[in-house]
Amino acid sequence: MEYFWYIIAAAGAGVGTGLAGLSAATVMVPILIVLCPSFQGEYGAYQATAIALASDILGSAVTTAVYAKNKRIDLRHGWVMLACIVALSTVGSYVAFLAGNVILYP
Predict the structure, then answer these.
(1) Closest Cα partner for 60 from 18, 8, 3, 103?
(2) What is the pTM of this model?
(3) How far is CA 34 from its chain centroid?
(4) Each residue of 7-49: pLDDT tens digit?
């Protein structure tokens, strides 16, 4: 039964990413944590998040390859987005480090 939920989580992430531009974590993490016994316990939320983010990276790589193939990448204007993403990812990582496990496990 657990494999069924894996397939549903992956399909939901694919549809959400393809149609609405959602992160795979939006769909996969709640399904994996709540419905799959393998993700219960102390590190289940971290494992589910890591799997969802790996899925996001693979999806972004495929999208980038398609855009590059069709010459739809604008690197001249993309540096602003890159700078914002790197800055906010750094800030988010620092805040998560300060919060520790208190947020996930009260």
Answers:
(1) 18
(2) 0.70
(3) 17
(4) 999 999 989 888 888 889 999 999 999 999 999 888 898 899 9
- Which pLDDT tens digit goes with each residue over 47-81? 999 999 999 999 889 888 998 999 998 878 888 98
Average pLDDT value over all residues in the chain: 88
Structure tokens at 36: 């799959």
Quote the CA–CA distance of 37 and 79 in Å, as a whole number. Answer: 42
Ordered DSSP codes for 50-97: HHHHHHHHHHHHHHHHHHHHTT---HHHHHHHHHHHHHHHHHHHHHHH
Task: Determine the Cα–Cα distance for residues 18 and 24; give it in Å rounded to an integer.
Answer: 10
Give CA–CA dist 9/25, Å, rounded.
Answer: 10
Q: How far apart are CA 80 and CA 63, in angstroms?
A: 19
